[in-house]
Design a protein that fits this description.
The complex is a heterodimer of chains A (306) and B (291).
Chain A lengths: L29 H22 L2 E2 L4 E2 L4 H8 L1 H36 L3 H7 L7 H12 L4 H8 L19 H26 L2 H8 L4 H30 L2 H6 L7 H9 L7 H34 L1
Antiparallel strand pairs in A: 1-2
Helix pairs in contact in A: 1-12, 2-12, 3-7, 3-9, 5-7, 7-9, 8-9, 9-12, 11-12
Chain B lengths: L1 H10 L19 H15 L3 H7 L1 E2 L10 E2 L2 H7 L5 H32 L5 H13 L2 H14 L6 H25 L4 H8 L4 H30 L2 H7 L6 H11 L2 H29 L7
Antiparallel strand pairs in B: 1-2
Helix pairs in contact in B: 3-13, 4-13, 5-8, 5-10, 6-8, 7-11, 8-10, 8-11, 9-10, 10-13, 12-13
The chains are: A mainly alpha (306), B mainly alpha (291).
């Protein structure tokens, strides 16, 4: 879980009274919790109930695990799970590596050029729908890159351009996520680098550390506490994204969210419990993966400190 | 960057982490860094190029690199007053602005408690607030589908605002908690001692101190709502046609010029917002995700 920042050292110790009830500050949390938790919890609980076959709308009133059995028995589910896992892992990995590289490359001129700083964040607010459409027109077989290939004589026909959109390896999808998320990681990394400054690295350098040693033993360990939670967000988002695989992915096997939506909007209402089961399974997979990842990061950090 | 690393490794084969002290290296201002930065910006802008070209082209088919015929036909259609664009823009701005305002209203007090205080159960609370960001939006959308229909919230403005809030409010809380973690509440106590009312303390002490954080939190809440597709599609039930929903159906229609023009209409407002929030985003550096 991304931490909410550490308490400032300036804050006086008397403020750390452990009970929110005693000093009556708990009501301040209520509005946010009321807005976030009940609807979200309701969505999850309702999905669980409906996935267990309780679906009065279509005359189902019993509880059973048929939907799960049927879902997990489908080869398509496992293929889609593989697709989504591949997308999420690769998106997180590539965005993190490239984002850190980007931050290290850009920080040298960051403070001097406000315009560059602005441009490097330009795609931060751009919706994924637009990123996905952009990738279709950039990487598709009649996209800009293919046209450049034709103009330079590398390819003769559109069909000669490798299929990187609607392809089995989800290259187009990954391109979209990396394009959007590497700058996101870079901003997080730059935030840390800006706060910490270069003093540690300078000390390491003056003690004779090579630039590789500085990167490995000084810069990267400084980045982990902030970049790791950010990369978890990238992972979870890529795993759960609907519109990006919808617009850029192959139709079979599709990513899990696309499969879930297709099951949910199927004219045969009888597969609704399966759609709900898939929603539940998807959510559990993401949460389990996230907790596992954060546990690994925490262990890594503890080892670094010793 | 890589080149220097390589040479450093070659010239220092010693396994010892410390070579003999050398003069401190200059860490900034290399030419390579400048070129890398320009390259990064070019890569970030590149995917938007074909959309822009498409919007001003007619019959822009493979293998044309530069359109054979330029045209503002798509722009005329997209900007026509009877087209769906203005209505979609209205929905998008209306929903996102409402979501932003509500996110800040609930985010400031919650961020304050989470940022300033440590207490038992804090981790659990943080987990509760942040889980919606991890769980696939599709799962939330289909889980709430029937209930929202039954509650009469499906296909309504407030229904869409509510589901967007599930995702936007956590971002606001997250950013504001980070802001309050570096906030010194003692200034408020001083103002109170000097006789300022609660309202005046908020207006003249708290507000100016957290203003950059508010701008960043509001910016994130806005773009989360602005970008939302599947929740709007499912809960909006085809009645709340925000720009992303209109965009996907337009793209399915297959007219690349109109799609191109519509993407630019959808991007411009948030890019302008970014320009306004940019300084603060850089300064806050999203340092909220840990320090």
């Amino acid at each position: 879980m991304p931490s909410f920042g550490n308490r400032s050292l300036r804050t006086e110790p008397r403020r750390s009274a452990p009970s929110l009830i005693r000093d009556r500050s708990w009501p301040k949390l209520l509005p946010a919790l009321v807005v976030i938790v009940p609807l979200f919890a309701a969505a999850f609980i309702l999905a669980v109930i409906q996935s267990l076959g309780y679906f009065p709308l279509i005359g189902l009133r019993s509880f059973n695990v048929d939907a799960y059995r049927s879902l997990l028995g489908h080869g398509e589910f496992w293929q889609s799970l593989l697709v989504s896992t591949w997308i999420a892992v690769m998106a997180a990995l590539l965005s993190t590596v490239l984002g850190i590289a980007m931050a290290l490359g850009i920080r040298k001129i960051w403070r001097r050029s406000g315009r560059l700083a602005f441009l490097s964040q330009l795609n931060l607010p751009i919706p994924h729908v637009i990123g996905a459409l952009a990738m279709v027109h950039l990487l598709g077989q009649s996209g800009l890159i293919a046209r450049l290939g034709h103009a330079t004589g590398i390819i003769e026909a559109a069909s000669e351009f490798p299929a990187v959109v609607y392809d089995p390896f989800s290259v187009g999808i990954l391109a979209e996520f990396v394009w959007k998320d590497a700058p996101f990681i870079a901003i997080v990394a730059l935030g840390v680098l800006g706060t910490v400054g270069e003093s540690y690295e300078s000390v390491a350098a003056s003690l004779g550390a090579s630039s590789w040693q500085r990167l490995h033993h000084v810069t990267l360990p400084l980045l982990v506490p902030a970049v790791a939670p950010a990369s978890v967000i990238v992972f979870a988002f890529a795993f759960g994204s609907f519109e990006v695989p919808l617009l850029l992915g192959q139709s079979f096997p599709s990513a899990l969210p696309v499969l879930a939506y297709r099951l949910h909007t199927n004219v045969d209402l009888g597969v609704r419990p399966e759609a709900m089961a898939l929603a539940v399974v998807m959510s559990l997979v993401v949460m389990a993966a996230t907790l596992l990842y954060l546990a690994l990061v925490r262990r890594l950090l503890r080892r670094e400190k010793m | 960057m890589t080149a220097t690393q390589e040479t450093d490794r070659v010239t220092s084969p010693s396994p010892s982490p410390f070579r003999k002290p050398s003069r401190p290296r200059r860490l900034r201002g290399t030419r390579g860094g400048r070129i890398a930065a320009v390259l990064i910006v070019a890569i970030i802008l590149l995917p938007l190029v074909p959309l822009v070209i498409n919007s001003f082209a007619r019959g822009y088919v493979f293998p044309q690199l530069v359109p054979a015929e330029w045209s503002i036909r798509a722009w005329r259609i997209v900007l026509a007053t009877d087209g769906g664009t203005w209505e979609a823009l209205g929905w998008s701005v209306g929903v996102a602005a409402t979501v932003t305002a509500l996110s800040l209203v609930v985010g400031v007090p919650a961020g304050r408690v989470l940022g300033l205080r440590s207490f038992r159960g804090k981790r659990l609370l943080e987990f509760l607030v942040l889980t919606p960001l991890l769980v696939p939006a599709v799962a939330v959308a289909i889980g709430l589908d029937i209930t929202f229909i039954r509650l009469g919230l499906s296909g309504t403005f407030w229904g869409v605002v509510l589901v967007h809030l599930i995702l936007a409010a956590p971002y606001a809380v997250l950013v504001l908690a980070g802001v309050f973690a570096n906030y010194d509440a003692d200034f408020e106590a001083q103002a109170t001692t000097l006789g300022a009312s609660t309202l005046n303390v908020f207006r003249h002490v708290t507000m100016p101190a957290i203003k950059p954080g508010l701008i960043v939190a509001g910016f994130f809440a806005f773009i989360v709502s602005w970008s939302q597709y599947v929740l709007t599609l499912q809960i909006g039930g085809g009645k709340i046609l925000t720009l992303p929903v209109l965009l996907v159906s337009t793209a399915n229609g297959g007219d690349a010029s109109i799609t191109g023009a519509l993407t630019i209409v959808s991007v411009l407002p948030v890019v302008v917002l970014l320009a306004v929030a940019s300084r603060h985003v850089v300064r806050a550096g999203l340092g909220t995700t840990g320090t």
